[in-house]
Specification:
With 267 residues, the chain is of the alpha/beta class. 36% of the residues lie in helices and 22% in strands. The protein contains eight helices and 14 strands. The strands form four sheets. It has an eight-stranded mixed β-sheet, with helices on both faces. A hairpin with a 2-residue loop joins strand 3 and strand 4. It binds adenosine-5'-triphosphate and magnesium ion. Adenosine-5'-triphosphate binds next to helix 5 and helix 7.
Length: 267
């Protein structure tokens, strides 16, 4: 039985039908599945309605107190429950929780200056609630929020949250489903690089080839494979059969390889 952590990108938006079908298919075969979702575009839309700006630093949302309220409502309220309903409609026993529940995600401020406001990084994962739900045949759908030592809720980038859970569960695959075909070498590329080593990922971030929302994604994939997940894949969540491709041959999107540098990405 394999364990699969799927990060359902907020960027996939209304085009997630195939991904939901795929998740339902794998859950139906008895695999252990955990879904973690983002919600960037929907959060930004709600902020705009309230006249609040959306501001990002290296792909992470700057989260002041007002923004945090919106983040919490949109992620744990709307987006999470919408995914739960969509999966239930496909016969999956889905349960929506947030990283606050059962102390699943313990956080500390993202940086010491708290320049990103109420953004957290994951200090510790207590995966017991996931194990309980999985053992009982439920599929956890996790909103990327966490609590710190003072009981303060913090916004965690969903890629980062999913990566931490992938490592804690020693996932066979950590799949980051987003709105591009994978990591691309330039803005005009049509294809993803099939494989990215840790060294090359860091190099591409430093040189700006990897920017915006792809930065936390690649960093989360790197951390996950270095800390216990077997493999990480950045794939197009709008395409049919994407999880099947990952699990059967793995030649899809961009695969992030761990520790050892295989020198090149011509996999
Ligand atoms: N080298 C690159 N290759 C591919 N995409 C890149 C690259 N550099 C930056 N990006 C951007 O990263 C984006 C994906 O990250 P983004 O945070 O927007 O989506 P998401 O994580 O799926 O959604 P959410 O954050 O709501 O969960 C792409 O749409 C693309 O614009
Ligand atoms: Mg993102």
């Amino acid at each position: 039985m394999s364990t699969l952590v799927v990060k359902y990108g907020g960027s996939v938006r209304d085009e997630g039908r195939y991904l939901e079908e795929d998740i339902a298919h794998f859950a139906g075969t008895g695999q252990r599945l955990v879904v973690v979702h983002g919600g960037g575009p929907e959060i930004s839309r709600h902020l705009a309605r309230l006249g609040l700006p959306a501001q990002f630093v290296a792909g992470q949302r700057v989260t002041d107190a007002e923004t945090l309220d919106v983040v919490e409502m949109v992620l744990a309220g709307r987006v999470g429950k919408r995914i739960v309903r969509a999966l239930q409609a496909r016969g999956v026993r889905a349960v929506g929780i947030s990283g606050e529940d059962a102390m699943l995600l313990r956080t500390v401020p993202f940086d010491t200056q708290e320049s990103l406001g109420f953004v957290g990084q994951v200090e510790r994962v207590d995966s017991r609630i996931l194990e309980v739900l999985l053992a009982a045949g439920y599929l956890p759908v996790v909103a990327p929020l966490g609590v710190d030592a003072n009981g303060q809720v913090r916004n965690i980038n969903a890629d980062v949250a999913a990566g931490a859970m992938s490592a804690a569960l020693c996932a066979d695959a950590f799949v980051l489903a987003t709105d591009v075909v994978g990591v691309m070498e330039s803005a005009t590329s049509l294809h993803a690089v099939p494989e990215l080593s840790v060294a090359q990922a860091l190099d591409w971030i430093a040189s700006g080839i990897i920017s915006g929302g792809m930065v936390p994604k690649v960093m989360a994939a790197v951390a996950a494979v270095q800390q216990g997940a077997r493999a990480a894949y950045i794939v197009d969540g709008r395409q049919a059969g994407i999880l099947d491709a990952v699990m059967t041959h793995g030649r899809v999107g961009t695969r992030i390889t761990g520790g050892e540098d295989r020198g090149g990405h011509d996999g």
